[in-house]
Amino acid sequence: MAVPWIHLFFFHILVHVIFLSFFFVSASLSDFSIVDYNLDSDPLNGDYAPPSPPPPYPPPHPPSLTCHEMRGIGSLNTTCELNYNVNFTRDVYLEGTGNLFILQGVVLSCPFPSCCVTINVTGHLKLKANARILGGSVYIVAGNASLFSGSVINVTGLAGDPPEQSTGTPKDYQGGGGGHGGRGASCVMDNKKLPEDVWGGDTYSWESLEHPFSHGSKGQSTIKEDDYGGNGGGRIWLEVKDVFDAWGALLADGGDGGIKGGGGSGGSIYIKSKKMTGGGKISASGGNGFAGGGGGRVSVEVFSRHDDPEFLVHGGRSFGCPTNAGGAGTFYDAVPRRLIVNNHNLSTDTDTLLFEFPDHPLWTNIYIEDHARATVPLLWSRLQVRGQLSLSHGAILSFGLVHYALSEFELLAEELLMSGSVIKIYGSLRMSVKIQLMLNSKILIDGDGDAIVATSLFEVSNLVVLKGSSVIQSNANLGVHGQGSLNLTGPGDLIEAQHLILSLFYSINVGRGSVLRGPLENAGVNHTTIRLSCGHAGCPIELIYPPEDCNVNGSLSFTLQVCRVEDVLVEGFLEGSVVHFHLVRTVIVKSTGSISASGLGCTGGLGSGVLLPNGLSSGAGHGGRGGDAYYNGSYIRGGISYGDTGLPCEFGSGSGNHSSASSTAGGGIIVMGSLEHSLTRLSVYGSIQADGESFGKYSSEDDNRVLLDIGPGGGSGGTILLFVQSLVLGDSSTISTMGGHGSPNGGGGGGGRIHFHWSDISVGDEYLPITSVRGTINIGGGIGRGLGQDGENGTLSGKPCPQGLYGIFCQECPIGTYKNVSGSDRSLCAKCPSHELPHRAEYISIRGGVTDTPCPYKCISDRYHMPHCYTTLEELIYTFGDPWLFGCLLFSLLILLALVLSVARIKFVSVDELPDPVPARRGSPIDRSFPFLESLNEVLETSRTEESQTHVHRMYFLGNNTFSEPWHLPHSPPKAVKEIVYEDAFNRFVDEINDLASYQWWEGSIYGILCTFAYPLAWSWLQWRRKKKMQKLREFVRSEYDHACLRSCRSRALYEGLKVAATSDLMLAYVDFFLGGDEKRDDLPPLLHQRLPMSILFGGDGSYMTPFSLQSDNILTSLMSQSVPPTIWYRLVAGLNAQLRLVHCGHLRSNFRPVISWLQTHANPSLLAHGIHVYLTQSQPSASGYDQFGLLVCTVENEPVMPSESPNRSLLLEKYPRTPANRWRKAFDLVRVNEHAAMQRRVPGEILNDKNLQALKGQLTLCYPLYYIIRNTRPVGHQDVIGLVISILLLGDFSLVLLTLLQLYSISMLDVFFFLSIFPLGILLPFPAGINALFSHGSARSVVPARVYALWNIISTINVVVAFICGFVHFHSQSSAKRHPNFQSWNFSMDDSGWWMLPTGLFLFKTAQASLINYHVANLEIQDRTLYSNDPDVFWRS
């Protein structure tokens, strides 16, 4: 190809471009449907403009042949069927209004170049199977057309002459291929030219791209004398009004040239139809040859295409150079307005030229596929499409010419999609797309030919994605702007330029292994090479106050700038000499990421080392002085330090030997933010480095890597200047401006400078920590190898901190210090005055640091309260002065309140306790131990006498009426009632009574639960259920039971023969049997002496709440009055009960002995005059081991012989053995012994005496130790004094409980919970129970509340023990603290040794209360103290 032709070609293009108007039409691509198309409407409405008119018909044609002339059947005006082959030697014209059917296997042939076959029928044109039409040009117009399978319209290699002035056929006889849609290939090897500079025939007919009708070009021969080149492809014009059914083939391929000639280029195919079906083949490919021919041109204007036929426009194969096939042709799809350049995966170095692109209407898409190479050769061209520009499968798109990188190009599209493809720009490119996706692709920009066009700009509004080692590279300036996201996804992805600006993106993601770099590695020197300000001691103004526009400006010092981006995520590498982040919100450097300017600074500079002629130099300086080098016994001074510590922005210096390959460079500059616009957040988990370069060049000797002995010193570290609001350094992160290591005996480079310029540091309550530093910040100097010295450390500085903050990172001053001046030095944080700190307080940190005294503090525990750090108890105590004064006030208040309570008690209670005196009648047997009216006594005696006249027998219930052992009667009726009852009916009565007396399971369960948490409530529950049970038994016997067991008809009729009663403590019940009056038995009821010996059982069980007692009711009193006067009996019962109340169930052996003695000394001597003796007995124990005790009443004649009497009586018999009186007495004693033996058989149980008393077993329980605290005692009198003391102790107890609660609250709420939850009511109810006991009316009614009060009081000691344990555990678990010098010697705080005082005092109070309550109860129950007189005469006289 001649050079002068190129000049003329570019001159023609230049003239054309001058008159070309550039504009950009932004519109969205409308969808095109082949289903909803309306044939009657305008097919080009909406976004599609009408197609250009077809070219004129061929020159005047001959007259139309008839059907008969073609040996056919029929007529062209109806239907013509061709049955035989027809061969022509000239142009053929067929016209008619009917149909033309070319039947199977028939050939319509004119196989000569330029022979034209024209068919114009109104009806249907059919080519049946294997039918063929051959010719140089085939022009068909039909209403419908059908090409059956195997049918062919073939113009391959039958081209006529190409258009005039076309250069499709190569002129040199070098076997080049013909050109048409694509250039023909050339297999000429020229070392002085690039492969793309050599081609065969050139392209033509670009202007008729949409309606191609040009012949292909001939390939050139390799021998001038012989024509071996293949002919070009012919032309096919197919215009169908309705439906084109294409199952056959349309072939306009170039002819093959063989190994001695180039292949011809493909021809032209134009198809127009409303509807197209079928999957046939449509091909205008180049012919094969020594060099392959270029592809032709195909255009399809079909509005509804239902199948996908095969369109081929690829270049022909080259036998002389198999990797360089002919250039691909063009396939234009007119309705969607898309251009496809596809080389069918044939590799090539031959281009397809793309010239002017239409601006109205715009093309929709351009596809360059399958190793096609397309070139836009025009200067200042614009490629604008409304949809996609897609390159795939080895496709290459070039803008400009290789040797003329002077042009500016524009690329405008919705999407740029690249897969395994390359875009080359020679000059600069202004690209504007919405989406740019690259997969294993490259965009290479060669813009160093002219400084005016050295800047390329990519504007991607939505998304940029590089994947699969994709590359965007420019050897000049490159700006990438966008409004969406820029993603470099993985290893090998690269964007690099001499000056690289990334701006306006929402986010930039540099994936692992990806690189952003500026400048290029190993870039040559040209007009775009970075020129560093190495010799100037100053900061470039654009680093501190960068421009706001973020435009690409080669005059600025930035080599890599990220501007106006919200978020930057770095997992790969950012490298540059001057890396700058401007108007960026967040930068995150992951653990695999790195931002580096290491070794990209100056090779000389202000701090360069001293260079010796032999190449040895000292280390370079910057933040610190460079290390000295050692040579010939002396040290060579290292480079000086330079720059501003407060606001550094200088390059690191190098070794100074610019021309040497082993020279070292200093570190570059990394600036994040600016004075006016700082980064919101910088998070570093990887590294940010501006280290100096180390000496480490290697030379190869016998494939061994040997370090050179002499070399320069290390480069100094660069500058990292961070304008940030907050900083996070992860565990393995690094920020470094280290100096480089020197050569052997060379000095190490000095460290660089790192400066943190904080902005918007909030103070006071708005302060938030601005840093979280767990990584490494390194400003160390480089190592000097051998005798060389290390470089000095660089500088690490920060903006001066406001008041309360200090250090590089403006942290809060340490606890216990304050800072009221600006600055960063640690010494500015002064210590807080110690005398202002309470002894239980510690200094605390506050947000923003402490700016003045007094320093804030807090108590060491939440149990202390500000401002003096007292506990709640201490606050109460010190409110009244000191502990001693508080104790005196409290004691005085207790006495005053106790006096008030005593006065109130006397007012409300004394009236009931002091009954009016009643004058006694002479001779009346009144029991003066229980004062009551004499007249009432007489009435009671009369009623007792009447009731006892019908009483037959008293039958006691077994059991103690508890949930574990309820009352029950034995089934066998007693002997005394067998005569008045029916035994079977009696047994049924017993069953009903026993069923009624038993308890439900839930009653016992509630009792067990209450025993666990509140025993007094459990006792009250038991008494209430006993009372209810007794009421049911009485009601049952009184009204429900029909008394069927009684023999008396009168008793059964009146329901009067049976009565159920119980003692007042509801533990002993009995059934009384009465006569009905109709028995007619003289021996009934029996008299008292007939019933003797008679057992009378005690009520109670010997516990504190229910002591043993003898209940003397009316019947029993009436019976005993038959032998003993009632006054004697009443006094006896009162004295016996006084003795029994001292008996405790756990101390039976020791407590029953005084009772037996009292019966012998007080009771029996008085009863002897009435012929009666009483004895203490024990009944047979029940199945559960419950024992019942009582009295045995017998006559003197029936008195049992006691073991202690036998020796005296035997001595008497021995003394008077033979006198008559002794003989009579002996006989009488024998009778009495026999009667006693009979009586013993009648007495149930065992008579207790001093001998068998030892066999009793006491009932030991968990409450056994409490016997020594709470028990029944003898009265002591002084009731008013005891009441007053109890009131004082009760109030003191309540006060100590409250103080203990405050004390435990001071420890923890958990201790308060334990104190209150273990027996939750035990600590709260003693006070109200005590008030209730003190204010109960009457002595008898006050006893039970007093005993309940005693129970609550003793149970609360468990809570006191819990408080003691909590205090003990807390005191011994906390570490001992130093006391304040002014600390009080006596305190209620749990920090001191007096922690035990309140629990101990409370325990002593409760113990004292228990003793006084015992006396109080005794005074209430025993008002006659002579009942405990040891003198029987005094006892009976009272």
**Sheet with the most strands, sense and barrel status:** 44 strands, mixed
Cα Rg? 63 Å
> What is the arithmetic mean of pLDDT?
83
How many strands appear in the DSSP assignment? 68
Helical element count? 21
What is the distance, rounded to the nearest whole angstrom, between the alpha carbons of the first and last residues? 160 Å
How much helicity do the residues have?
10-25%
Low-confidence stretches: 1-56, 697-707, 911-944, 1201-1217, 1375-1391
Q: What class, by secondary structure content?
A: alpha/beta
Task: Report on this structure.
The protein is α/β, with parallel strands linked by helices and 1438 residues long. The strands form 9 sheets. It has a 44-stranded mixed β-sheet that branches. A hairpin with a 4-residue loop joins strand 20 (330-333) and strand 21. Helix 4 (883-913) packs across helix 16, helix 16 (1279-1307) runs antiparallel to helix 18 (1326-1334) and helix 18 runs antiparallel to helix 19. The protein is elongated, with a radius of gyration of 63 Å. The protein starts with a helix and ends with a helix. Mean pLDDT is 83; it is low at 1-56, 697-707, 911-944, 1201-1217 and 1375-1391.
Structural features:
1438 residues, alpha/beta, 44-stranded mixed β-sheet, 21 helices, 68 strands
